[in-house]
Amino acid sequence: MNPIPNALLGDEITLLKPTESGWTDTRISNVRAEKVSAIEDNYNIPQEKTELFVWYDCVNSYPNTDFEAGMRIKFRGEVFEIVKVREYKANTPHHIKITADKIKVEEE
After folding, report:
1. How many CA atoms lie within 13 A of 63 on its CB side?
2. How many other C-beta atoms are found inside a 10 Å radius of the C-beta of residue 53?
3. Which of 78, 83, 71 lies closest to 18 in space, CA to CA?
4. Taking the CB of the first residue and of the last residue of the chain, which one, N or C, has fewer CB atoms within 10 A?
């Protein structure tokens, strides 16, 4: 498998990892991030749902890091919680697709 072309990896996110005293943040560069919003019917009550899909290329994105459900991503001023991490690989990891749901964060 070839790496994802750099032309498709122009976004930057901040990965927030929980710690005992709060959150640590790591800037992740050269990823692809797509925000998708939809109105869903929840028992006849329309609700807006916003998801973020992030593609992290194991060659061209940096720095190297691990992603886990429960971590958070900050993207363009909004905060999302990671709900799914899917690794694509042939013999070695090729890229990672992260799905995250938008959350409301209380001011600290």
Report:
1. 6
2. 15
3. 71
4. C
Q: Is domain 6-102 classified as CATH 2.60.40? A: no
R_g (Cα) of the chain, nearest Å: 15
Residue type, 91: N
Q: How many CB atoms lie within 10 A of CB 56?
A: 26
Answering whether pTM is above 0.90, one says: no
The domain locations on the chain are: 6-102
Give per-residue pLDDT as tens, 27-68: 999 999 999 999 888 788 888 889 999 999 999 999 999 999
**Half-sphere CA count of 47, side-chain side, radius 13 A:** 9
- Residue written as token pair 């750099």: 6
Q: CA–CA separation, 42 vs 89, rounded Å?
A: 36
Q: Which residues touch 103 (CB under 8 Å, ≥6 apart)? A: 72, 79, 80, 81
pLDDT in tens, 10-30: 999 999 999 999 999 999 999
